[in-house]
Design goal:
homodimer, about 700 residues, alpha+beta, Immunoglobulin-like, 32 strands
């Protein structure tokens, strides 16, 4: 195995393909940060334990898998957390309805509880068989007990075989060679950090990106937008980002990327008014270009040979195409103050009522075929749109519907139309294994209760987003879509709105804590949202937990789904305290909680000094957070905050601080700063 | 294009793969019957309209698709009837949860309303893009109207493009060459017949196979089986076939293929008792062989390199493996009177809670890989099990969970665990496009109403099957599984049972009519169950109908699903009459029916003389059907019945008759026979 960086090893077999996430990457390996990670200097398994061969079908890999190992990752898996014993196909697909591996962001990377990671560098629809089958004859050497006769599929299909002698088999179609990367631990979490640093590190959103997001009705006109924008401020509903859906364009599906002056006359004036109210504006789009788009003709020769929805599919791996697309976005949007985009439909779709996208056999000018382009399109799109923001020296936090391997440094958050609350929670649990961020967005809901429960999850997630593109009025006024459109509101909706406001304010309070977690993601590759198993790979009780997760270093979130007034929460080792009441719970066991509708079960590690900001309506460019320190346990006397301007790339040249906040024995507070950033983002006001 | 048979053309490109349905076929093209079909002698499109090329990925085909064409087929598609505008992957998969092409019986064959069929001879997971995409630039030449802004996915995703310039793109991975077969019409139904005759013709079940089937509780013991068998006869519930589920074997999952003498002591005596009561016995199995199976050692060297459920996967394309497997079945089962098998799990599974089967990269002694073996396994298994019955000179009707291309001559009926009544009806509609038979089996139900509605569909389907493997007592006593197991029965279940009995008797009455429809399938390739579009390709109102179908030449079936007391029925051209009341309906329009719980909407073409048998409890070896003729309209004076011994392969050497039954002007009945079969299967008793 060839050493690529500290704790990163490569196995090369045959002649790898020209187009892979590594050959297409535009980010740098964070060598320096990798050097700071603990490392044995020995690969986690030897090359003799790996089988690699070329067949008619492509390349086949077989990797060791010990009896006690459990496997996680493979990108944004929405249907399962622990993939041991399962088959996973790494194929981009919108709204996957079953546990097949298909995902908005499939990644050919897995990590093991034994403390290592494996990345297969391919854009092919590779299949991973994670200990699904023994080799012929292995079963005869076991002892057999006759099972009771099964009378359900569950009983019949349960595995009887011992789990030794297993392997991970990887099937990579079409390829004639492959690069395999192995990431050392020593533990699962470190292997994930290593993969993220290899990918370029995590992204650092602007501070405002951590506030509340609201996407508005697709058919809204200028006056509807302004009415909503005014109402939020009047009703003191914190909102940072205002999102426009397809209706802002003259043509959508496919896209013209031109403002519709009928619905939005003098749209620049409107944008000025929104900016004046401290809203950031985000524009929906997809990249299938309508013939009437101003950049259609220029991009035609740089596009694939099939259309999607009457639109061109530009090959964004071609510098000319990239430049045309990016320059247009800079000039027309970024330079005019647009803060971000929602990059839709860049996944494919085999599962929805109307499947779409280009065929796998499509041909692109770069030489990529449709299969490869499908698995890379989301990443190419992110890199393209990131460009104008880099040039403008402004950070964005944006949305994207597809992503893939080595994408952790792009400040884009994934989303989906699946809209099942449990599935959405599982997305938060899983995204951190593969360098991804996920938004369990809220639309309307089946009831006010459902709305509140969903908002609670959103508020404790990578992006706190209400996507109200199907309803003209806020969902707290009416959850039923038809009634919402007719303007019939729920009786006593102000009570629901007040609960929502409290939750929005809770999000705003957590921004300093969250921003610090994101900084650790950017600089150390440590995911801000993590499955419980990630920090507890020795605790098998955590292996299957898909409904609770860590936010940052100290906060455990266990959302409740509508229809239940209580839930059970398992605590990993250590002592935990209720965020709301301070009550103490010992780790290694489960407790049942029924905190009422207004509260989501949230717990804090004993010994945590939690910095909470005074909620603002928005994070202005010159925002200062007034931080109160909340002590969880007597030992809670110190916390760290990340500080920079929250807006630019100055942090890359050292313009940031780590602020060490401590409570002295006399109760006074110290805030010691390390770093070169001069302004203050935090004002520590006291202890709660 | 090379002419292969009358109206069948082949295009060869490159070097086709060694293993395809055609190279593995064991049936003969029915050249003589093909010669009897109408035919222009010109392929439906020219070779210039077809593009074929080899790429890195495999072989790519592009075929013409006119604006007005609609496409059907692709095997047992359970989620859609009209595949125009859709992507379909030809990949065997158990219980497919979405409209992806995956199927228990995927077939790379489609037929067009323009009157032709296309078969791509491959075992690869080929993808068919049926007019999904235009080529780059085709949209710029259209006129655009700005759509209203969509506020739902349905609106946004709807196609705006004109549907001209379309093609069918076929992506065949791994292959270096391909054989493409084109089937002339002149119409859709004839193209289907041609495909079936090319495949070897349809199957001819034994007459008893058309009676009622009952599969019993998986955990049943000998005394439970006999109690049920006696009850059916005592209560005069017609049942022909008694099915044993996994519990008959000493080992299952995987399979030993050995009777369990604990649950079934002296099983041969038990079988003798069942035979004495005129039951046919069917045994469940799958082919993944447990190490304790008597044929394990012999088959080990003829098996794939991975196990499934601790079991060998024998390569049944190898003559030695085939012979060992088939001879064991002949000696142990067929020679001991077993009438058929249920061949389970020979599909794969990506969609169920516990995915299973061998990897696509598995290697088999024949040189087939796992992908090819997956798509052929069901057909190989059918051919293997058909062997002992051929040798014994006895026909079987059996069950199988997977099938594929060119399989129409195998007397095996497909089934699934999906258990959605609407989906199951769609299976009946679709199976006839691709040479397949499908059983919308009944298990328990959510209510007595649901049970009755499901049985109504089953009774008017290729196989009338109650699969009660999860409940020890008949479902008409208790539909709730847990209560059924506890022996708690529904109040007044005898009323439900009586309705069920009436339905079972209705099935028994239709056997002569159905048997004749199957004979047309065997000899002319005409499917016994057909979508309405098959006989009406010019009537666009039939294109999407997925909830009504033709049974035989004259009967239109429109099942009702629980929760509805009425439904709308569209009648194709012609005059139709209600089976129950004789009421007249004109074709070309829809009517609404609410026939009450005991009746399923069934209609008969005006002018039909319908032969209905006096219901028997079972079809004995020496059965004679007492047929009454029911007239639908004054012109109904003639019908045709197929006649043979109902049991052996004598019909292949001409031992069968076509019986032409006519009502003379004086009301007397003539029954003129053409053919060499001497015994009489029908006794015509009069006119109703």
């Amino acid at each position: 195995m060839e050493r690529i960086a500290n704790g990163v090893w490569r196995v090369r077999f045959g002649q790898p393909e020209q187009h892979t996430p590594v050959t297409l990457r535009e980010t740098e390996i964070r060598t320096e940060q990798l050097n700071e990670l603990k490392c044995t200097g020995t690969p986690p398994f030897s090359i003799d334990e790996v089988s690699l061969k070329e067949t008619n079908r492509g390349v086949q890999i077989e990797l060791p898998l010990a009896a006690e190992e459990h496997i996680y990752g493979f990108g944004l898996q929405l249907h399962r957390v622990d993939h041991t014993g399962r088959k996973k196909v790494i194929r981009v697909n919108s709204d996957p309805v079953a546990d097949t591996g298909d995902s908005h962001a499939p990644v050919p990377f897995y990590v093991s509880t034994s403390g290592y990671g494996v990345y297969v560098d391919t854009l092919r629809y590779a299949t991973f068989y994670c200990g699904t089958n023994l080799r012929k004859g292995d079963s005869e050497y076991k002892k057999y007990e006759q099972k009771t006769v099964g009378t359900s599929e569950m009983e019949l299909y349960s595995r009887q075989a011992s789990e030794s002698n297993r392997t991970v088999v990887v099937d990579i179609p079409t390829a004639k060679g492959i690069d395999l990367y192995v990431f050392e631990g020593p533990d699962l979490a470190t292997a994930v950090q290593r993969y993220n640093l290899f990918s370029g590190g995590g992204c650092l959103p602007p501070a405002w990106g951590l506030g509340m997001w609201y996407r508005t009705y697709s058919a809204a006109k200028r006056e509807d937008v302004m009415r909503l924008a005014n109402t939020f401020r009047e009703e003191r509903m914190p909102v940072d980002v205002f999102g426009f859906e397809p209706g802002w364009q003259t043509k959508a599906y496919s896209c013209s990327l031109v403002w519709d002056e009928e619905r939005f006359p003098e749209h620049e004036t409107m944008l000025g008014e929104l900016y004046g109210m401290n809203y950031r504006v985000n524009l929906w789009e997809h990249l299938f270009l309508h013939p009437m788009s101003p950049i259609y003709s220029e991009l035609k020769s740089h596009s694939g040979n099939y259309e999607v929805w009457e639109g061109l599919v530009p090959d964004l791996s071609i510098p000319e195409a990239r430049s045309i697309f990016a320059e247009y976005h800079k000039k027309e949007f970024v330079d005019k103050g647009i803060a971000g985009f929602k990059l839709d439909e860049c996944d494919s779709s085999d599962y929805v009522h109307s499947n779409w996208s280009f065929p796998d056999v499509a041909e692109f000018p770069s030489g990529m075929d449709g299969e490869q382009m499908h698995n890379q399109l989301g990443t190419l799109y992110q890199a393209t749109i990131q460009g104008p923001f880099e040039k403008a020296g402004k950070r964005t936090l944006s949305q994207v519907r597809a992503s893939g391997a080595l994408a952790s440094s792009f400040p884009f958050v994934l989303y989906s139309d699946l809209y099942n609350h449990k599935v959405f929670i599982r997305g938060v649990v899983n995204c951190g294994f593969s360098g991804l961020l996920w938004s369990p967005e809220v639309r309307q809901a089946e009831s006010a209760e459902d709305l509140i429960r969903r908002i609670q999850t959103a508020v404790f997630s990578p992006m706190a987003l209400l996507n109200c593109w199907r309803i003209p009025n806020p969902p707290w006024m009416q959850v039923d879509r038809d009634k919402n459109i007719r303007g019939e509101f729920m009786a006593g909706y102000d009570k629901t709105r007040d609960i929502c406001r409290n939750l929005f304010e809770l999000r705003m309070a957590f921004i300093p804590y969250l921003y610090t977690a994101y900084a650790k993601y950017a600089m150390e590759g440590r995911p801000p949202f993590r499955a419980l198993v990630m920090d507890n790979p020795d605790d098998s009780y955590t292996y299957d937990i898909d409904d609770a997760y860590m936010m940052g270093e100290s906060v455990l979130v266990a959302p409740i789904v509508t229809g239940s007034s209580e839930r059970s929460v398992y605590f990993p080792k250590g002592t935990w305290r209720c965020f709301w009441t301070g009550a103490v719970y010992e780790g290694g066991q489960s407790y049942t909680f029924s905190p009422g509708l207004e509260r989501i079960p949230v717990f804090v590690k004993d010994g945590t000094l939690l910095p909470l900001a005074k909620p603002q309506q928005y994070v202005a460019d010159d925002a200062i957070f007034e931080v109160t320190l909340q002590q969880f346990g007597d030992e809670a006397r110190e916390c760290i905050l990340y500080e920079d301007d929250g807006l630019t790339f100055g942090y890359r040249s050292g313009q940031y601080n780590w602020v060490k906040v401590s409570i002295n024995s006399d109760g006074t507070i110290d805030a010691g700063r390390t770093g070169a950033y001069e302004r203050r983002l935090y004002h520590i006001v006291g202890i709660k």
